[in-house]
Design goal:
The complex is a heterodimer of chains A (273) and B (179). In chain A, strand 8 and strand 9 form a beta hairpin. Chain A has nine helices and ten strands. A five-stranded mixed β-sheet of chain A has the order 2-1-5-3-4, with helices on one face. Chain A has a three-stranded antiparallel β-sheet with strand order 6-7-10, with no helix packed on it. A two-stranded antiparallel sheet of chain A has the order 8-9. Chain A has helices spanning 2-7, 28-34, 73-79, 106-122, 137-144, 180-188, 224-227, 249-252, 261-268; strands at residues 11-15, 18-22, 58-61, 86-89, 100-102, 161-162, 168-171, 194-197, 204-207, 234-236. Chain A is an alpha+beta fold. Chain B has helices at 17-23, 28-32, 64-76, 84-89, 101-109, 153-164, and strands at 5-11, 36-38, 52-58, 61-63, 77-83, 129-134, 144-146. The longest helix of chain B is centred in the middle third of the chain and has 13 residues, at 64-76. Chain B is elongated, with a radius of gyration of 18 Å. The N and C termini of chain B lie far apart (37 Å). The chains are: A alpha+beta (273), B alpha/beta (179). At the A-B interface, helix 5 of A face helix 4 and strand 7 of B.
Chain lengths: 273, 179
């Protein structure tokens, strides 16, 4: 064990010019979060296998000076011949000594806003009628990025609600396919309740029970999978609208605060469960 | 007054909540009206939108008359602002997009509880419902978006204030909300 420990060499990457130490095996996201640097993310949760689906944590790795990223990134992409720079997901890319990483730049945040708009228009995200409003990480992300509208035409998908379970309901209109519930159920308690099925725009959350219904799965309200949903897709029944406006998670916190997972979890656990 | 900024407002598939929130400016409306005059609006008796500087649109587009009014506003307003969740993404009324239009009409006018003389209204004076509820940017170009259900009076004041000063409107993060 001692020899193992000795092989972990403290090293350094650079995020927006700031020195960030990392241990061997850490991703860029791991190292950034450990150093208190926020990289926007929706599908990442420390302790679960990285997924890389939401792309909010897109960062640029390159030899270019950080300041050159502050102009229009899309224009740069068209005309730049710099082949050393590439966009990657920070949650799936290993930290490698000496990486020069751009993260909190106006250009990258503009790209992230576009990604967030795509998530909004692809589902039915009608915040005024959603029980998760004020406690929703997707919504807080949109606030963080200054999103005023969805920009693209709405898809208005027709998706199935599953209210069969006595204590948990599934509103697929709001699902962003982050797979946090899939991973929590597979990796934390081994029940393997959820999966994503279908291809392309038809991809959707399914329940691994013989009937496909939540009621016939082993899901219980104490499971992490029942609470981990960052949006309003998996809800504990009869606990909507309990927190006054002004005291909801993101009335009191910014999405960019490090370690907010604990706060969110405390908020969604209910005493009578 | 020739120097005043002309503002028109309307509610399409809206609930008039955004207009109420506009009125929530309270006594600050007095100061605002030193600088602006209202053209066509639910708050005036003007029947058609004349040439205006700013058009405020509440509500999505749910029927043929909505589309007609929206185009009249676009043709006459230099700046068109989508006000509130409904105008921006269809809002709560767009939840009917889950269902076929005929199902909705039959539920309301034929099969609904307490319906007498069941029939779907079909007089030519009534505007036909569209198959789906649409955000207004599906129909016309929109210059600015004022989110919220409804946007707060402070949001109205900030955006109108910026425009009156000739600035690009900007919402501070503490005023940004969708609910």
């Amino acid at each position: 064990m001692g020899a193992e420990t000795n092989t972990i060499t403290p090293n350094t990457i650079f995020i927006d010019g700031q020195d960030i130490p990392f241990n061997a095996g850490q991703t860029i996201m791991d190292a950034a979060l450990a150093a208190g640097v926020y990289i926007p993310h929706l599908c990442h949760r420390p302790g679960l296998t990285p997924h890389g689906s939401c792309k909010l944590c897109t960062v640029d790795i390159g030899s270019r000076d950080v300041s050159t990223h502050d102009s229009d990134r899309r224009v740069q992409a068209k005309f730049s011949v710099d082949t050393d720079s590439r966009s990657v997901s920070a949650c799936t890319t290993p930290a490698v000594a000496g990486q020069q990483i751009s993260n909190n730049t106006p250009a990258l945040n503009e790209v992230r806003k576009t990604i967030t708009q795509m998530l909004f228009i692809e589902g039915n995200h009608i915040c005024p009628s959603c029980e998760k409003t004020g406690d929703c990480t997707l919504q807080a992300m949109a606030y963080h990025l200054g999103m005023l509208d969805g920009h693209f035409p709405q898809f208005f998908p027709r998706r199935e609600v599953d209210a069969s379970h006595p204590a948990v309901m599934l509103d697929r209109d709001r699902c962003i396919l982050c797979e946090l519930c899939v991973r929590a159920s597979r990796e934390v308690d081994g029940k393997n309740v959820f999966a994503i099925a279908g291809r392309g725009i038809n991809a959707h959350l399914i329940v691994n029970s013989p009937s496909g219904k939540l009621a016939d799965s082993g899901l219980e309200t104490g499971d992490m999978a029942a609470h981990i949903c960052p949006v309003g897709a998996i809800l504990i029944k009869e606990h909507g609208y309990e927190v006054p406006i002004g005291q909801r998670t993101f009335d009191l916190h910014q999405v960019g605060e490090i370690g907010l997972e604990e706060v969110i979890l405390a908020k969604v656990m209910h005493t009578d469960e | 007054n020739r120097n005043k900024v002309r503002i028109a407002t309307t509610s399409l598939a809206g609930c008039f909540g955004c207009h109420m929130s506009f009125l929530d400016m309270d006594e600050r409306l007095v100061a605002l009206l030193e600088h602006v005059e209202l053209n066509r609006s639910p708050l005036t008796d003007i029947k058609h939108c004349g040439p205006c500087d700013i058009g405020l649109i509440e509500g999505g587009v749910c029927n043929a008359e909505n589309a007609h009014v929206l185009r009249e506003f676009r043709d006459n307003c230099k700046i068109l602002i989508a006000v509130g969740a409904c105008a921006i993404n269809g809002g709560v009324p767009a939840m009917r997009n889950h269902f076929h239009l005929r199902e909705c009409l039959e539920e309301a006018y034929v099969n609904g509880v307490g319906v007498e003389n069941p029939q779907i209204p079909d007089d030519a004076e009534l505007p036909l419902l569209l198959d789906k509820v649409h955000p207004i940017h599906d129909v016309v170009h929109v210059d600015y978006y004022l989110p919220g259900c409804p946007p707060s009076a402070d949001e109205f004041l900030k955006v109108l204030g910026d425009l009156l000063e000739g600035k690009e409107p900007a919402l501070p993060k503490n005023l940004l909300h969708y609910d």
